[in-house]
Amino acid sequence: MNTVVEVTGSGFRAYEVVIGRGLLPELGARIAALGQGRTVVVTDETVAALHGPALLAALEASGVRARLLTVPPGEGSKSFAELERVIDRLLAFGLDRRDLIVALGGGVVGDLAGLAAALFMRGIDFVQVPTTLLAQVDSSVGGKTAIDTPRGKNLVGAFHQPRLVVADIDLLATLPPRQLRSGWAEVLKHGLICDAAFFDWLAGEGAVGATGDAAALQRAVVRSVEIKSAIVGEDEKESGRRALLNLGHTFGHAIEAELGFDEAKLTHGEAVALGCALAFRFSVAAGVCESAAAGRVEQVVAAAGLPARLGDVGPFSSQALLKRMAGDKKAEGGRLTLILARAIGDAFVDKAVDRAALATFLKHEGAS
Ligand code: GLY
User: Fold this and answer.
1) Which of 92, 108, 179, 323 ranks highest by number of CB atoms within 10 Å?
2) Tens of pLDDT along 39-83?
3) Coil vs helix vs strand at 309
4) Which class would CATH give 177-364?
């Protein structure tokens, strides 16, 4: 059965996130119902080979005029050069403001195609069809679009909400196990932020989702999208509560950066899982959280096959990590901002984290 989560907020047009199985073949009807003109499906070469023909056939069967625009797979496509190429292709296809972009792929495709949609003719509509777990539970919902620059990730972008998100659980069946686990990290994160009962389920009966059980995955995606959309609805532009979604990310980004954003060494999801475990242990060190909660987080993260200790990933220098964390774009006015937790399901934003305490903590965690 499909579930529809509505994303509503004061600053943007409401849209639906449809979550279920067998949704790709019916996508043509959903897109035709939006009443747009022509459609360009932006995807990467890997996803195009897996799902491109099925999607084009579904669109054609519903009378939608569509063509495919492929980009190389991988983070390298979140660049000015690729953005320019995509926009140039849209112009060459003769697209105009009434037409539609469909982003079929993971976070890279969604971010790039979403930014192209935000910029093209000052903004055209786009639909997200996320094909990775990470994109289904996080990046396809909430309207953050971006590319990277040599100075950092996601530094150039726009808030541009999609018109519709269609998350087909069946598309996750072709994901490599490591990618599935990486998306699971963002699922765990949602429970840790504000839903202890959901986290309990993920740790117990629902844990089979991390290894591909479709029913568990569907429930995990639905609850994650409900949590994320409620937060985005309250604070689209991240002036407050949306920062909670960054739980584990400031630690995680610093670690990823130290490893040169090398996905072979550490995926984004693995970094987030490790970051969540560190955020909970730092919350204990800061005296705001019981150590039993941090111990449970570590155990559940590790049981999902995700790293929970710095030593699982490599040797790090505490000063290097601290410098990265302070330079993270989430650091405001020279103070260090971190998402901490009082308990599982009770995260909060701390905008005045003491750097010396953080340095001591990182050393205690094994950084030199
Ligand atoms: N991924 C965090 C956010 O969308 O705000």
Assistant:
1) 108
2) 999 999 999 999 999 999 999 999 999 999 999 999 999 999 999
3) coil
4) mainly alpha
CATH class of 3-174: alpha beta
Radius of gyration in angstroms for the set of CA atoms belonging to the chain, rounded to a whole number: 20
Name the one residue in this structure whose structure tokens are 């639905």. Answer: 222
Query: Where do the domains of the chain lie?
Result: 3-174, 177-364
How many Å lie between the centroid of ligand 1 and the Cα of residue 66? Answer: 30
Among the listed residues 213, 225, 215, 219, the one whose alpha carbon sits nearest the alpha carbon of residue 304: 213
30, 181, 228, 330: the active-site residue: 228
**Rounded Cα–Cα distance for residues 204 and 19 (Å):** 22
Specify the ligand 1 atom closest to the Cα of 186. 1
- pTM for the whole thing? 0.95
User: Structure tokens of 35?
Assistant: 């009443």
> Quick check: CB of 138 below 6 Å from ligand 1?
yes
Alpha-carbon distance values, 146 to 18, 109, 115, 165 (Å) = 23, 10, 6, 18
**Has residue 335 got a pLDDT over 70?**
no
